[in-house]
Design a protein that fits this description.
The protein contains three helices and five strands. It is α+β, with helices and mostly antiparallel strands. It has one domain (2-134): Roll (Nuclear Transport Factor 2, Chain: A). The strands form two sheets. Strands 3-4-5 form a three-stranded antiparallel β-sheet, covered by helices on one side. It has a two-stranded antiparallel sheet with strand order 1-2. Strand 4 (111-120) and strand 5 form a beta hairpin.
Amino acid sequence: MYQRMRDIRDREFLGRGLAFPLQYDPRGGIALTRGESEIEQAIRIVLLTAPGERVMRPEFGCRIHELVFAPHDPATESLAAYYVEQALRRWEPRITVQDVIVSPASRRDGVLMIEIRYQIKDTHDEYSIVHPFYLTDEEGAL
């Protein structure tokens, strides 16, 4: 019990915040997330936000949304990797981006699978998440 409490306390420096997407906890309050989960959710928020969406922070987000309707080619994949890495380096200071790998999704044209490998700066723990990015929907338009 003591070890668990110490582990939880030691991870508090990673932060905590509202769960994404917004949801309720079992007691009816707003659900919170903390630690590594909070960082992963923060990464997804950066990637899902286009610059200009937030009124009080118009530069916040990832420029990957500029690639919607771009051709599915190596140049688009390279730009997607660049935009993701640039956004995470700027907006998520708790991590070090080690690599961003963009590849086409198998059997789905117009979908890029973006693998982000990162390290949490304070713990040196390494993680990887995969984020799908849709260039178009299945009919060819969003």
